[in-house]
Amino acid sequence: MDQESDIVPKKISKLKIIPLGGLNEIGKNMTVFEYRDDIIVVDCGLSFPEDEMLGIDVVIPDITYLLKNKEKVKGIVLTHGHEDHIGALPYVLNKINVPIYGTKLTLGLVENKLKEHRMINSINLNVVKPGDKITLGKFNIEFIKTSHSIPDAVSLAIDTPVGKVIHTGDFKIDFTPIDGEMINLHRFAELGKEGVLALLADSTNVERTGYTMSERTVGETFENIFSNAKGRIIVATFASNVHRIQQIINAAYRFNRKIAVSGRSMVNVVNVAIDLGYLNIPTGMLIDINDLNRYPDNEIVVITTGSQGEPMSALSRMASSEHKKMEILPGDLVILSSSPIPGNEKTVAKVINLLFEKGANVIYESLADVHVSGHACQEELKLMHSLVKPKFFIPVHGEYRHLRQHATLAESLGMSKENIFVAENGNIIEISKDSASITGSVVSGNILVDGLGVGDVGNIVLRDRKHLSEDGLMVVVVTISKEDGSIMAGPDIISRGFVYVRESEDLMEGARSVVKEALQKCEENSIKEWATLKSAIKETLKGYLYQKTKRRPMILPIIMEV
Asked: Which of 119, 427, 557, 559 has a CB 3.0–4.6 Å from the CB of 537, allowing a cystine?
């Protein structure tokens, strides 16, 4: 037996990297690292529904693969506290309760989320700081300080049995960050010298040349705008952008203005950031939004959510006079301190128009430097690649065009095409010390969350919702006799979203007649099966309505027996 085992070559284990979200899309970031019996998960994000996902609240990754390998999962490691990196945690932790690792602010925001879902007592949260190292199974993970549009963002250096892998998370290179804590480029360079097997890097801003401007430039713009403002100032920004909020506070303090906060997520984040020491607000400066009337207009700044024009956000409600605490007044100055996420341009433009109609002055990105991105542009990405010098490269966090352009950027720096993997969600990328390849794929995709239902709305339900929203519904109610199948009452036809019945009496009368005829034919042929009767009603009515209106409403036959 021993002789045989000497002859049989030992199977070399490979590292598997499996993205479950964040590729060919913006958001829903989640990546699995697997070596033999150990799995770690990096990030656990959600994305917001596309226009055709009618009624859907959020979209989370499909974790079928993790559920199948539950006993292998050693923990979830978070790079930062944005929704597209932590938003799916309550749903995932419901199915797989594993330890969570993240920096102080990241876990502060996670804690808030878990409290809302009444899960806080059952989850094991572990605070780490940049420079810390943890061991999960065969993985040693080091947290490296980076800059992003939320404090406490980190990259991960993951030491695996086959070599070191760096996952940048979302990052930019800001030499003058608000908190004075610069990205640790020195550590990336050291790791590059030691040898990096693979790099997974943020591709969101790869289409932009040059460098991303420093967050400080926004602070300077705020000071200029605030110095000339005569009335109230309302600034809408992302709730998670704590550095931006700090700069609004600094500018307000300089010009003797009080700060009020509006919008549930903004209030939550500001409270967490104050508690954890990430926001510095001078005593007496923060006031309740209910007390605005106690101060002159030129002493007020309101920080609010709604920079993306979201219909239910505080700014949208102010713009459409639906906000309980505050109305936009002529002379108010509204600053939209963000750029529209692709797809949101129309909703943002709608809010800007409403604000102007109310007599407010509006400043948005195309008018002044009131926003800078949190993601690296081309020159910063080149610097990261040059410092890390990876053997293999997997572009992540971006739509297909972003991933493809990031691959081209890596090639322009001398990397060989064979070592770059533009993957899709679910792909298994297997890596050994000297080779890498995509060897297959696992189940991946979108799980749709609608209210309390997770995954119970699929493509068929969405198709029906789309059909109903476009063509309406007709319900046909018929009562038939148990004995001989003859029509006892009806057919009665109810229309919703198809035509206005009172003005279409001829059409409805005609519809009743064709259904009655179809049922009489069935009766003559002694057809009593409900399925056949229903399909006869559907087909006859469908043909009649299309001929008369060129529309195809959803038809719902209801048969009752007496």
From this structure: 557
